[in-house]
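S., here's the first fold you wanted:
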Amino acid sequence: MRSRTNGLWLGMLMIAVAGCDVPTVSLPTPSHSDWGRFEGEVVASWDADGRLMTLREDFAYVDPAGRRWLAPAGTVVDGASIPRLFWTVIGSPFSGRYRNASVVHDIECDEMREPWQDVHRMFYEACRAGGVEEAQAKIMYYAVYHFGPRWELIAENMVEQMIGTDGQPVEREVTVQHVVRVDPPPPTPEELKRVQEYIVEEAPEPEALERFSRAALHRRVGRGRGEFTPRTDAEGNFVRPFGEAAPRELPSWRERPEAKPAASGDRAPRPDGQIPGRRPTGTEGRIPPISQETIQWVTDIVQQHIDRQAGTPRMARYQVERSRNGYRVLVEYLHEDDQGQLAPYEGGTSTVRVSRDGQVLEVVSGFASRERSERMNYRPLDRPIN
């Protein structure tokens, strides 16, 4: 990752390496009343892992409409609300003039209390209030609006364990409502270049940035190059690049070997007497292995979801794991490098949660914080995918 730094920032990093608490003082920012104002300064210290920062004092941004966005003391931030690939262009979220905006944005994306559209617009206005140059602020706004975190309210069926009248543990399904992340797939290096070209050549207003979808970005004709469109066959179906086969026709979840329905419509027990989709009795919390058929079934579901969201086929490696209420899928995206070889790239990861009946429930792109990992019941993406 290439970070734009100054002498002060380098000095602060040296202190961090030495293991000391590092106060992060806001860079001087011009006063732009049209873009709102900041209250206080970002004062924080690095956590032991060197990747997370904990705020030591309250900090806030007041937007042009007078709305106050608070970053309370004690909150942990990690810069994950900004697609990591864009760090190569704009620098680390903890450096430069957009640092104050990224801190408030990080917290709002983690709390998910307000509509994601409002939170991302606040980030753009806070960048401008902090003195970020217009073109750079628009690149970052496009990044968070079209590639950054999103969330929505869903109703989910979950398994709840309780003690029956006979004193034995039993499981039942309950429906709960909660807010989940539904991030789009992270940008590719090619999309990063197209965003920069679009901003520089068109100088769009923020409202135009919001309307200019990912699909429109793919179709755009830039100066000195032709139009890019995803490859399709005679019927208009996506042709997956590099010779990869297209996903299979998805079967019903009840057609899987592990979930054949009984004549009554109930789930049929396997020969060992266990009910498919339920935790086997006597396993003391152990999770049974997944068949290759189910791994392929879950992978196809996630792959088709990603292709629809991206507007073009995406090359990726998938690792499927079973969770209590379904499956989690670790996705490592690939792209064609300068030598024409498939390779992973910075920030090209997602974690997808899939229900037992094949519904994509939650998608978190990029590095996921420890707190969110625990909430989603998956491991952080800090290790390679085999």
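And the second, which I think is the more interesting of the pair:
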Amino acid sequence: MLAPKTNFVKIKCECGNEQITFSHASTTVKCSACGKTLVEPTGGKAKINATIIKLM
């Protein structure tokens, strides 16, 4: 059985807030605490502008 190429990712913003997002997010994800853009869609794997803590 093949493993999926997409997964959820736990990320940490510069302000210290932690969030869970999708590795291939199709919408912009902003920090729920400070509003900084953390994830930008690219049409495939999303560009993550935060520290990746854990792949889930």
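Why I say that: The chain has a mean pLDDT of 94. The two ends are 18 Å apart (CA to CA).

Talk tomorrow,
H.
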